[in-house]
Design brief:
CATH topology: Nucleotidyltransferase, domain 5
Number of helices: 8
Helix content: 25-40%
Shape: globular
Strand order of the largest sheet: 8-4-1-2-3-12
Radius of gyration: 21 Å
CATH superfamily: ATPase, nucleotide binding domain
Number of strands: 14
Strand content: 25-35%
Distance between the termini: 21 Å
CATH architecture: 2-Layer Sandwich
Structural class: alpha/beta
Largest sheet: 6 strands, mixed
Order of helices and strands: EEEHEEEEHEHEEEHEHHEHEH
CATH class: Alpha Beta
Length: about 325
């Protein structure tokens, strides 16, 4: 079927909140190919500049699609589609919006969902994505690629300070949780992090290619892993703040597993694997710490949250793009 859409310029605009900053990644598309990718970050005080940037992108393209990643802590997922069981899972149905997803309930705070749309004022948002939806798609994509995760598996999505956790027994969802890590703002200010940056990639006709320190003695390490060298490298090359966040990830995963095991509301059994999808790479020390303490070696994949949002946008809008 002939479609004029592919001959006119389109832009997919993904908006994500990152520690009160606006991260905006846009993909300019023509003839079903990405011809330009642009990412800019604006501080909370630069909201008007962020809005102007989005409006400029909209004005310069014929078709526009704006997607928002819902990063509010007021969300979750529970393994039931029976509204009478909400209270059993500690969910107040008077304050939330419910959506059936993966034979379960995905819920979000009504107030926080409304507030998330306000951040870009009167600009129209086409799609709002929950991190649970992104993680679910990552799991299904891996299975479609031939990866088989038998038994009970813990899947983790890490994007900056936001952690999404889902437990499946084969294809059946059993447990979900969402957490926001605590960031040391003082360290960030001292490091004078640049809050505005711009990355532009021009293309031809080809599509874009896309601790607890006292416990360190108990860490089980690979033969070729030099702990002293690795820790020195990380302390020198990355902030202690990053390492603190990594350890918070372990603490949260550990507490979520205990909740799954100990709370009789969940049909629990021992977890066989931990699979992590990371937008930013975590430390090897953290992975080793998870293996040592939980006796499960994490399987880690590097992903791009913005690209995953783009894929979901294409699916929901029925738009084809060479990715």
């Amino acid at each position: 079927m002939f479609s004029i859409r592919k001959y006119l310029s389109s832009v997919f605009i993904n908006v994500v909140l990152k520690d009160k900053a606006f991260v905006i990644e846009s993909y300019s598309v023509k003839k079903e190919k990405i011809i330009k990718t642009q990412q800019r970050t604006f501080s909370d005080e630069e909201k008007q500049k962020a809005l102007k940037h989005i409006k400029d992108l909209i004005d310069n393209h014929y078709f526009t699609y704006v997607s928002l990643l819902f990063t509010s802590i007021g969300q979750g997922m529970i393994p039931t589609i029976n509204k009478n069981e909400l209270q059993r899972y500690g969910v107040d149905d008077s304050a939330i919006t419910l959506k059936t997803f993966d034979n379960s309930f995905l819920y979000a705070s009504k107030v926080e969902l409304e507030n998330s749309n306000v951040i870009i004022d009167n600009l129209h948002v086409d799609l709002i994505f929950s991190p649970f939806v992104i993680l679910s798609k990552l799991i299904k994509d891996k299975r479609a690629d031939g990866f088989v995760y038998e038994g009970i598996n813990l899947f983790v999505l890490k994007y900056n300070e936001f952690i999404t956790l889902m437990i499946y027994e084969n294809n059946k969802f059993k447990f979900g949780s969402y957490f926001e890590l605590k960031i040391n703002k003082e360290n960030e200010e001292e490091e004078n992090i640049e809050l505005e940056e711009e990355l532009e990639i021009e293309n031809d006709d080809d599509a874009l290619e896309e601790l607890d320190f006292d416990e360190l003695d108990n860490i089980k390490l690979d033969d070729d892993f030099n702990l002293d060298e690795n820790l020195n490298t990380e302390v020198n090359d990355e902030s202690l703040n990053t390492f603190s966040l990594d350890m918070q990830i372990f603490e949260y995963i550990n507490s979520a597993i205990k909740e799954f095991y100990d709370n009789e509301v969940y049909e629990s059994d021992f977890i066989n694997n931990i699979i992590m999808f990371e937008h930013e790479k975590s430390s090897k020390a953290m992975h080793s710490y998870i293996e040592s303490e939980l006796l499960l070696k994490p399987i880690v994949y590097k992903i791009d949250v913005f690209k995953e949002m783009l894929k979901l946008s294409c699916l929901d809008l029925g738009v084809k793009i060479d990715l």
